[in-house]
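Researcher: First entry.
Model:
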Amino acid sequence: MSSFISDQDFTTPAHIRLEPVEPERPAGRGARNLPLTIVFLAAVWLVVSAVPFGYIGAGRYDAFWSDAVTGIALAVATIIRLLNPRAAGFTPIIGGLAGWLLVAPLVLQYGWSASTANDVAVGVLILTCAALGPDEKP
């Protein structure tokens, strides 16, 4: 007999009841999402990296805003993709943002500096992870 309020069996003592069986999680899901997790961490790094590289102290507001906006957009796209694996169209967005990181030093004329090396390294990492990431299922 079960209660209409809690839908639990209240006639059988608790020590006799069977423990509920948890559903099995799909194998390898964490490994499949590893490239997207790396992209998310790289996006967070882009936003945070303005402090150690001193973009604002050097008067490079264009580099600061480029990396901040790109990092936030990458983080949002990656979170949506991680939370909804069936969401389609995010790999080209992530790839396009990584491509911007690769050409931003040329377009914004950073010159050869720590910010250029940071953008190129993070851009290559994100492009690699986007290529190795899980396939999109429309």
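Researcher: Second entry.
Model:
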Amino acid sequence: MTTPTEPPVPPGRPAPARPGRKLGPVADNVGSAHRAWLDPMRTAYLASGLTLNELSGRVRFAKSKISELLRGVGLYPRWEIVLLLALELGMPNWPLYRLWSQAALEAHRNSDWINGCTDRTTVTATYTAPPLEHGAFRELVESDYALYAQVFLDDDQRDNAVDDTFNRLWLSWNEALAHHDTRRYAWDVLRATVMARTPHRDGRPELGAAAFDTVILHTLTDPADYANELTETLELFTAISRLPDRQLDVIILRRLCGFTHEAASALLGASLATIRSDERHATRFLDSVIPPPSTEGTTP
């Protein structure tokens, strides 16, 4: 999908000064699923120009409680207040509800609690269609996103991660369009969503499950050959996991997903030169840590 030829002013320009106390940062203990909808809501609030006082008057909810909600402080918020704020801030309620529900489960709220919040709400989270450009973008890249996510996650987690990615993009679609490259913005959302669900060791994502799913292992019938190949594959995947983030993504797309340089460039929103450079640097690193096959005893 091409980006606008004359994009709006990129994010990062300071918001107009507003009276009253500045909104504090998100609490450190807020999880990734909670932040998936909280960060877009904070962005919508800051872009609205409203003060907490004004927002409190409009939704008829205590200013202190709104501040706590927007910082992720205290108990996980009920859907009623989240929806009131969303309506006031012009946020689409369907993707917000999907992300809120997912985060509620991770906050150890059961389905009865979630349904109870919704049943008591006058305006429910009815489905509405996303913006046309968002829908077109999803149709263009969804299957490719799933291939990337599959390297790190099982089938159910993969599908949830991809779905959550597009719900997050829907909530922040204007910001995505304002970015210098919508594809790059969207990829960063996908990556953050997938990595939040991926097991990590020493700060790096684990790729052991993907190693067991390589094509060559499925073709080996001799136990000794399988064991040797598995050992080498695990060593390779461990080395891949140590790559810098951008090089890791390029190697995964190129070697594990089978993308061409051009396809990886389009998906990541990076130039062909950048893709090739990242691949070269990654390959040199992998060659330096994975010893070549032994040639001992062979004829020169």
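Model: Note on the second entry: The beta strands are 200-201, 204-205.
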